[in-house]
Amino acid sequence: MWSEIVVYLRLGVTHIANFTAIDHMVFLLAMTVAYTWKDWKRVLWLVTAFTVGHSLTLLLATLELVHVNDRLVEILIAVTIALAALVNIFRRTDTLTFPPAKGAERDWLKYVLVFFFGLIHGLGFSNFLRSLLGAEESLLAPLLSFNIGLEIGQILIVAVLLSLGTLIVRFLGSRTRDWVLVGSGMALGIALEMIVLRLVG
Q: How do the domains of the chain map onto residue ranges?
């Protein structure tokens, strides 16, 4: 039992925290590029919204209660990266708070978007997990362990990204807006390439 939990926990971590999962890593870049360590509470809410979304569809799709074309899911994941990057590029200031401050009701949009994007990414995670579960009699322990592993990997990536943002903005003296534009531009470029390749592939 414990050996099975450790196996799926490790699979969850390595599935997201490696360069074969570049789409998920680039999405986390687009999601957190506007923040440094001083904004950890805001990032926590964003990560929580993403987690709730992908946990829900990971569960439903792995249990085969939801069926979506794998190629479509891969294209939609790339689209979520592009949209997240565009939100950053066209947002002039970062006033995101939780709960939203008075007069900042529009800031709910980012939490809703991240939750919705999480739903799509969960379908992508499930494609990988379903291929591993063919011989398993019980799905509960593998599913839960894999999801926890995903979160550990996600937290590690976000910690690296926040550290990078802190280094660039606070210690190297770059303007926050410049770093947001550079990071979001990189994410957008990668996402557009992914969309084209997945459409013609």
A: 2-200
